[in-house]
Amino acid sequence: xxxxxxxxxxxxxxxxxxxxxxxxxxxxxxxxxxxxxxxxxxxxxxxxxxxxxxxxxxxxxxxxxxxxxxxxxxxxxxxxxxxxxxxxxxxxxxxxxxxxxxxxxxxxxxxxxxxxxxxxxxxxxxxxxxxxxxxxxxxxxxxxxxxxxxxx
Length: 152
What we know:
Elements: E1 3-7, E2 14-19, E3 25-30, H1 39-50, H2 56-61, E4 65-69, E5 72-77, E6 80-81, H3 91-103, H4 108-117, H5 121-141, E7 147-151
Antiparallel strand pairs: 1-2, 1-7, 2-3, 4-5, 5-6
Helix pairs in contact: 1-3, 1-5, 4-5
């Protein structure tokens, strides 16, 4: 099981510490979202709830690293961007990005409509929304150097 620790550092870049299911570790800094949830945390919740094992967090668990390439956070392996690797299937990542965009919309009615159209249905949409609301409250209450730990 992968474990991710999301560390809040107000006034500077927040950080993620990851222990993969094989025991290896990685981590990266990311721009602070203030009291808003980190994008990668939203990914973890959505991918976990929907059982998406080949999305962003699945790739990280399989050894992908996060590096800045042209000032963009990019998945890399052995110093090469994953998108440049021959034969790599990134359809799970595309599916995860699409699901996160749909299910984290700030408009509740749009989320509900999208949930009805999702293959996982409205129940999954409601579960994800409730979990993200709870995590948003927890994240907003964190002080400098405090964290939220999640598993995938």
